[in-house]
Amino acid sequence: MAYDLYVITDEEIGRGLSHAEIARRAVAGGADVVQLREKRLSGRSFFNAAVAVREVTREAGALFIVNDRLDVALAAGADGVHLGATDLPIEQARRLAPPGFIVGASVGSVATAVLAAEEGADYVALSPTFSTTSKDDAGPGHGLATLSAVRSAVSLPLVAIGGITAGNVADVIAAGADGVAVISAVVGQDDVTAAARDLRSRIAAAKARS
Ligand code: TZP
Ligand code: MG
């Protein structure tokens, strides 16, 4: 499962593009994973958005992860769910989900990464790796030293999230991340597809060097 370029949809940062259109442009640029992140919509409209993103990602062969909501992820046929510290516990999601369903977890330290691995997470995301304005309550960035420490402590796929740009992505991969999850570096750019393609080639180049 490749997590190299993991694009998170955000309709506000996407300047009016729908989740599905953001996904379509991101996968055209080579995104390996699309996460639907929706904080405003409730049940039915969230589900409808998820079905639309599922369609786009299925056609492209990209993974589709739903943020926060296991019920929506399962109902829409997503590949997985992404859970933070205030969402459903990883163990409960694991218990409810079918075999092969991906449960991803945000972590903020070596200790929480090790715990997430023990509880059955399929990947961990160091959140936030750098400071970001895209998530109100993200807090200060943990930095590359913590990223490397998490890399050494857990063997799960490790994604860096928060403040990743074309300028720092090579350092993030060199520090041990398997992939990067981004909003503004792709979704916030005028040409979403070109930004995704550029980031993905920087990731591939950094991996080839390490
Ligand atoms: N979770 C932790 S940081 C973050 C999320 C959703 C925002 C990432 O956005 P950006 O623009 O790539 O910093
Ligand atoms: Mg959450």
Automatic annotation (TrEMBL):
Instruction: Please tell me where 2-[(2R,5Z)-2-carboxy-4-methylthiazol-5(2H)-ylidene]ethyl phosphate binds in this chain.
Output: 132-134, 163, 183-184
Q: Which InterPro entries match?
A: Aldolase_TIM (IPR013785), ThiamineP_synth_sf (IPR036206), ThiamineP_synth_TenI (IPR022998), TMP_synthase (IPR034291)
User: Which pathway is this protein assigned to?
Assistant: Cofactor biosynthesis; thiamine diphosphate biosynthesis; thiamine phosphate from 4-amino-2-methyl-5-diphosphomethylpyrimidine and 4-methyl-5-(2-phosphoethyl)-thiazole: step 1/1
Catalytic activity field: 2-[(2R,5Z)-2-carboxy-4-methylthiazol-5(2H)-ylidene]ethyl phosphate + 4-amino-2-methyl-5-(diphosphooxymethyl)pyrimidine + 2 H(+) = thiamine phosphate + CO2 + diphosphate; 2-(2-carboxy-4-methylthiazol-5-yl)ethyl phosphate + 4-amino-2-methyl-5-(diphosphooxymethyl)pyrimidine + 2 H(+) = thiamine phosphate + CO2 + diphosphate; 4-methyl-5-(2-phosphooxyethyl)-thiazole + 4-amino-2-methyl-5-(diphosphooxymethyl)pyrimidine + H(+) = thiamine phosphate + diphosphate
Record text on cofactor binding: Binds 1 Mg(2+) ion per subunit.
Instruction: Look at the named UniProt entry and state the broad enzyme category this protein falls under.
Output: transferase
Record domain Thiamine phosphate synthase/TenI: where: 5-186
The protein's UniProt keywords, in alphabetical order, are: Magnesium, Metal-binding, Thiamine biosynthesis, Transferase
UniProt GO MF annotations: magnesium ion binding; thiamine-phosphate diphosphorylase activity
Report TM segments: none
Which residues hold Mg(2+)?
68, 87
Q: Which GO terms describe its biological process?
A: thiamine biosynthetic process; thiamine diphosphate biosynthetic process
Q: Does the keyword Magnesium apply?
A: yes
Which E.C. number(s) belong to this protein? 2.5.1.3
Q: Which cofactor does it need?
A: Mg(2+)
Q: Which family does it belong to?
A: Belongs to the thiamine-phosphate synthase family.
The job of this chain, per UniProt, is described as: Condenses 4-methyl-5-(beta-hydroxyethyl)thiazole monophosphate (THZ-P) and 2-methyl-4-amino-5-hydroxymethyl pyrimidine pyrophosphate (HMP-PP) to form thiamine monophosphate (TMP).
Q: What protein name applies here?
A: Thiamine-phosphate synthase
Q: Which organism is it from?
A: Methanoculleus palmolei
